[in-house]
Write a structure and sequence with these properties.
The protein is built from 9 helices and 17 strands. By secondary structure, it is α+β, with helices and mostly antiparallel strands. Helix 1 packs antiparallel against helix 2 (about 30-40). The termini are far apart. Keywords: Glycosyltransferase, Membrane, Transferase, Transmembrane, Transmembrane helix.
């Protein structure tokens, strides 16, 4: 967007004032600093150029974890493909489907509703895997990620505005990727109905190339959108002990223990004695095959804590979550273990 003449004059005055202040402190100021200020005007961008270090919270922690290669997987590099973009105000996150881009330098691109670039590109890196941190810009309607600063923008993702903590849901569920070719319709129906009775308000199921990035996207999609998230597999059910629902248990435990960024639940193995049905043949199918009714032979908890554990978390306290644990917390927060006497995964 080009500036009006009055705006251009104001920018020139601002640049000259800035340079006068600089000259008063050091006499060897080069013209490049003045020209950089004017370039903001001539390029049509009136704001001060930002860097990713200025925008992203806990940037030093992210850099440290990237140097440690936290969460890095041995994946062959694939073409860049965008999943979604979320603006949180000061910063934004773009989730991608591209594998093998961990730690690679890329550029955040900002576009308006007509897909015209409106802001200077900002250099960043892919970290964690499948995640790109960018500076947030409220007026950007779409975002893109490119390898170079001047590369033509081909792929774009509409920006979801998640700036304010106006939670739409108290507790939501993110379903882990579904693998294999087995019939799962009964498990899916039972899971949704069970958790609806347990107070879960919203479900996130990914049907596009279900891979590890779905869990990453679900985490960032729900930052400022759902107060708490429960992650689980299709054949698992979080079971509180006593007269309390899943949603009540998670909310109460997280509120009463403010340092808890996540709750880790132990599993109890359930012995399956038959395969799920392929087709629905009336209520008799449900009576004979609903897992929560038919399979009751549970084993004792595993000897090693963390063995296939699952968790619930606060999306605003977690930076990187994997299938069975949280890899990176926002500073101050930690994982809290829940004993099987209080709640468990079956």
């Amino acid at each position: 967007m080009a500036l009006e003449k009055s705006e251009q004059k104001g920018v020139v005055i601002l640049c000259m004032t800035t340079m006068m202040l600089l000259f008063s402190y050091k006499k060897d100021v080069e013209n490049s600093e003045f020209m950089e200020c004017l370039n903001q005007m001539s390029s049509g961008h009136s704001h001060v150029r930002r860097t990713i270090e200025q925008c992203v919270p806990h940037h030093e922690l992210l850099e440290e974890q990237m140097k440690r290669q936290t969460g890095k997987a041995a994946l062959n590099r694939t073409a860049m493909s965008l999943l979604a973009a979320y603006n949180y105000g000061r910063y934004a996150i773009v989730t991608v489907e591209a594998q093998g881009w961990y730690g690679r330098e890329v550029y955040c691109r900002y576009l308006d509703a007509n897909l015209r670039e409106t802001e200077p590109a900002i250099r960043t890196v892919v970290f964690p895997e499948f995640i790109v941190y960018c500076c947030g810009l409220e007026r950007a309607a779409h975002m893109s990620i490119t390898q170079t600063v001047d590369e033509a923008v081909v792929l774009t993702a509409p920006v979801m505005q998640n700036q304010e903590r106006h939670y739409k849901y108290d507790v939501s569920l993110c379903l882990a990727p579904i693998y294999g070719k087995n019939s799962v319709w009964l498990l899916l129906a039972e899971m949704i109905e069970y958790y609806k009775l347990q107070g879960i308000e919203h479900f996130f199921l990914y049907v596009k190339d279900m891979e590890a990035y779905s869990k990453r996207d679900c985490l960032y999609k729900n930052r400022n959108f759902s107060r708490f998230l429960l992650f689980g597999d299709l054949d698992e059910r979080l079971t509180p002990v006593g007269n309390i629902t899943v949603a009540e248990f998670i909310s109460r435990a997280m509120v009463e223990n403010p340092r808890c960024g996540a709750l880790s639940f132990e599993p109890r193995w359930v012995i399956r004695s038959s395969e799920p049905p392929v087709v629905y043949q009336g209520e008799d199918t449900l009576r004979k095959h609903l897992p929560m009714i038919v399979f009751q032979n549970t084993s004792t908890p595993p000897l090693v804590r963390g063995d296939t554990a699952k968790y619930a978390l606060d999306p605003n306290k977690v930076i990187l979550a994997w299938v069975h644990d949280v890899k990176i917390f926002v500073p101050y927060f930690e994982s809290c273990n829940v004993t099987s006497q209080s709640a468990y995964i079956r």
